Amino acid sequence: MCIIRARARQCCLVVLSLFWYTVTNSVLSLKKMSVHTHTTTPFILTVFGASGDLAHLKIFPALYELMEQNMLPRDFWIVGYARTKMTKSAFHKSIKESIRHVHGTRANTHVIMSLLSHVQYFPGAYRALVDFEKYHAFLTVLKKNISMVHLAYFSVPPSAFEDIIRNLALSRSSRTEDIRLILEKPFGTSCHSATALFHTVSQYFDERDVYLLDHYLGKTSVRSILNLRHTNRILSHMMRGAEISNIQITKFESYGVSERGGYFDSVGIIKDMIQSHLLQLLALVTMDIPVVTSAERLQKERLAVISALECVGDSDHVVIGQYKGYTKEAHVAPRSRAETFAALRLFINREEWYNIPIYLRTGKSIYESHTYIVIELKRFAFQDEKEEPNRLVFEIS
């Protein structure tokens, strides 16, 4: 492991500023993420970046599952929009391959074909308004006078966000046209770019139409954390600052960047993992549980914790590194300094959590793949110092 310390302060500031925008401006909450059994609202889902890895590894296999469970309406369309020139049949073939890659032999051919009957492909540039105007006309024909919600899923690098948002807005028939933006992480690449992106979104769309997506919050084990704290009297008592010695949140992966080298090299593991997933876990463990679990109340309590975070930017509190052989991975710059490992020690500047260290650790090409949260409890005065402290461990599957 090659340890890099020079950028410690910069990394610390970037991770907190990016998460601030994610928490402050997102209306997506645990309650809004609750899964409905069925939807009857007709929709068009545009997947921007449909030829990329995220779409094929996550989005299309997930849409297959929704189709298999009969959770999609009768009238809907899924349209892949990407710069890659591709026929509809070639796009269908790539989707079938991605579904079979994820679901294996249990993938139902009939369900796949039913899903593909609702799938279209449109090649176009992200910066060209004329392509978006053609795309808007294409969708108008596709809808056949049926009123449909337009969901725009951004499976693209942050550098493409502003162009797509602007062109979507400028090509729509009116500002009242129902378009919902679903933005994947990271929201910008720095505090400056996150601010600029926020202003771009606000210029063209209302907050209620914008969803900042963290798919980690959809995991069953993650969604259970608040419920466990709220309904279990023993856990509710133990998970208070007065009882806790430290908190450790760890996300290790035994594999490297694989085919995501180009994307990962542009962001590094702090923006890829800590500023979104791990800080969300930190918030769920330490935030006050609101009496009313509305989207706005959950958002407010998360923000209260995150805004109180203290991150000292020195080598005693931040360590970053890069696994051996990373620069030889496909699509990675030969002299890249992108971090593939990061460990942070944070503190929450609130009375209940005063001086209680919180450790965030994540890395690729580590000895194991394991995600867990450890709540280490304080020893009683009569306990021997050599005795192991009691710990609560949450395994995140």
Question: Could you walk me through the main structural features you see in this protein, from its secondary elements to its overall organization?
Answer:
With 397 residues, the protein is an alpha/beta fold. It contains 11 helices and 14 strands. Strands 1, 8, 9, 10, 11, 12, 13 and 14 form an 8-stranded mixed beta sheet that branches. A 6-stranded parallel beta sheet has the order 4-3-2-5-6-7. Helix 2 (53-68) links the parallel strand 2 and strand 3. The chain starts with a strand and ends with a strand. 33% of the residues are buried. Residues 1-36 have low confidence and may be disordered.
Quick summary of this structure?
The protein is 39% helix and 20% strand. The chain is built from 11 helices and 14 strands. It is α/β, with parallel strands linked by helices.
Question: Which tags fit this structure?
Answer:
397 residues; alpha/beta; 8-stranded mixed sheet; 11 helices; 20% strand; globular; disordered N terminus
Number of strands: 14
The rough form would be described as: globular
**What is the percentage of strand-forming residues?**
15-25%
| Largest β sheet strand count, sense and barrel closure | 8 strands, mixed
* Radius of gyration, whole Å: 22 Å
- Residue-averaged pLDDT, rounded? 87
